[in-house]
Amino acid sequence: MPASQRTWIFTIALIIFNILFFWIKPEGKAMTIVSDILPILCALVALGGTALAVRSFGTGNRARLAWILLLTGVTLFFCAETINGFLEIILNGDVNDGFPILADYFRMTAYIPVLAGLLMLVFGYKKSRFSFGSKRNFIFGLLGLSLIAFTFVHQLLLSILRDADTGNLAKSVYIYYFAGGLLITFPAALLVYISSLYKKAWILSPWRYLAMGLLCLTIFTIEHSYLSWNNTYGSGNFLEVFRNLGYLLVAIGGLYQKELIESV
Amino acid sequence: MPENKLMKRVQHILSPLQGEEMAAATVRIHCAVMGRKPEDLSPADLPVLVKSIQESLIIFLGSDKAQAIARSIEMHAV
After folding, report:
1. ipTM of the complex
2. Is the CB of B60 less than 8 angstroms away from the CB of A58?
3. Which domain holds residue B57?
4. Hey, is the C-beta of A173 within 8 angstroms of any chain B C-beta?
5. For an interface test with B, which of A198, A257, A258 has the most B Cβ atoms less than 10 Å from its Cβ?
6. Which positions 39-58 of A are in contact with B (Cβ < 8 Å)?
């Protein structure tokens, strides 16, 4: 059985476990442990998937560089999750206190290579002269996404910016998360759209799952920032399922890329 | 569009990876770049067409595998 199929089975099993566990909501430390261990595990799987994708490319080409950038981003996400877990499980701290914490700096840095990698794929596709679909669909899609993103961010971000109790550093980090999230949303959504343009195009599958995973991670980060600011976020929030699913979809994208290259 | 054996063979080589729709689009797009219609493709056009397709595949597969596909087209399309 190919690694991608095994990862699909693992993903389904883990997400079902994740939902059931959060639904049961066990008392005590168990919730914190599971809530912190799962993202570390999922980010590690994503790291493995993207690393295998990078290794499968030959040396010195722009596709490999794009995947190296994505791998760098995923590695930084993994560091952020590990620091979070260490602080909460080992040091018994609360990561929602004293925002931003060290993990936030890793997560913020991760946005840069991830965005660069996604842009390289989008511009590479454009350079290949393949279609972006009908102009009307493309423009309506872009306007629709811009409207949703703007409304979403406007509502959440304005509440934070108007809050006198939030310090300037924390506000800057919130702005960065929201702006970075938006910047990643556009190329990621574009890659999902591109990968739906041609039927049975196996060559586009890695991009589809990679981009869907990054969209899940972005939605999680934006919502998590807002809820943390609002003091309504705690271990066992169902939003975490999105984050874990996001990492695992990134892993599946990487494994599809590896299998695609090996199939030639 | 009238059938052209060369066009069909190139599409046939690309379709396991790209699917039939994208393979047909690949041939159409790269013929347009050369200023040719797909139905008018001749073996003399093949080197330029292959080079153009190879370039377009790099972002998906990397240079080595794009070159492998290009070689496969050169060997099996004519």
Report:
1. 0.91
2. no
3. 5-76
4. no
5. A198
6. 57-58
The total domain count for chain B is: 1
Q: What angle do CA A41, A192, A176 make, to 5 degrees?
A: 65
- Phi then psi for residue A166, to 5 deg, are -90, 125
Among A29-33, A240-244, A247-251, the minimum mean pLDDT is found in A29-33
Contact: B25, A125; criterion CB under 8 Å: no
A128 to B56: CB separation less than 8 angstroms, yes or no: yes
**A3-263: CATH architecture:** Up-down Bundle (1.20)
Instruction: Please say whether the dihedral angle defined by the alpha carbons of residues A29, A31, A34 and A40, taken in this order, is positive or negative.
Output: negative
* C-alpha count within 13 angstroms, C-beta hemisphere, residue A180: 26
DSSP secondary structure letter of residue B43:
G
Average pLDDT, chain A: 91
pLDDT-derived band at A255, boundaries 50, 70, 90: very high
DSSP string, A116-151: HHHHHHHHHHHHTT-----HHHHHHHHHHHHHHHHH
Question: Number of Cβ pairs closer than 8 Å across A and B?
Answer: 81
The 3-state DSSP class for residue B71 equals helix
Domain regions of chain A by residue span: 3-263
